[in-house]
Amino acid sequence: MLQSMTGYGKATGTYNDKQIRIEIKSLNSKQMDISTRMPGQYREKDLDLRRMVTQQLERGKVDLSINVSTTNVVASTQINGAILKDYYNQIKQLSDSENIPLPADWFSTLLRLPEVLKNEDQQLEENEWFEVAKITQEAIDQLVKFRVQEGDSLAKVFTTKVDNIERLLGTVGQYEAERIERVKTRLRDGLQNVSENYNADRFEQELIFYIEKLDVNEEKSRLQNHLNYFRETMKKEHNPGKKLGFIAQEMGREINTLGSKANHAELQKIVVLMKDELEQIKEQVLNVL
After folding, report:
1. Over the stretch 1-29, which tens digit does the pLDDT of each residue have?
2. pTM of the prediction?
3. φ, ψ for residue 79, nearest 5 deg
4. Which of 3.30.230, 2.40.50, 3.30.2310, 1.10.760 would CATH assign to domain 7-71+126-147?
């Protein structure tokens, strides 16, 4: 079963007066790359959260964010009265000495000044951490579900592209006999233009050698095996993204060799079409876990 590395999950929950919302996003990456954003109160559990993500998502560029809102504002934010009073006195003194008008809305002005509002970091309770871990797991489950759905779509794309390459490979045979005859005729005509008294036996030997160099049966066979192996790997292996990429590279080598040996306009067209299908496979394989 294929999974995409692209995914999104979101889950919410509550603990006492707090509403906790957790979002997790993932994109394709060669390794696991995690970035986290969370309130300072939860920072002590950063490694635990990263471990949860790594164990279940395995690979990808992952962004985990935790947002907390509370209905009890006083519990989380307090006004620093001493600093507020000091700001008030300083502003009044400057107003008197510099003849600057006093603010019309004192509180609006003072509450925006540094350190007037202070957030009190409370110690993380064990039960609250259990709730955060539970919500995180729900978000991860949603993301995995998203990845599976995307993986199903990718599997359909790969199946279509591999089938197209196989169909194109099946058309190569109809041009092989014609191609050999053209080569044989061209070589014989070339020799006759040079001399009519060429050695026929030596010509046949050289022709056999040349034709063997142009033979594409091995490339056809290997490419067919790679196509079959791609299908098998896609269906049976767990998170086969990297392996599918390697197989696609091998498919490319055989297609390139077919092109170099083609020596025929129609075969060259077939090779170009194969390459186009393969490039689309390679692009999408980068998204497979």
Report:
1. 799 999 999 999 999 888 999 999 999 99
2. 0.74
3. -90, 130
4. 3.30.230
Q: Where are the domains of the chain?
A: 7-71+126-147, 81-115, 150-285
Residue written as tokens 């995690």? 34
Q: Which residues contact 104 (CB under 8 A, 6 or more apart)?
A: none
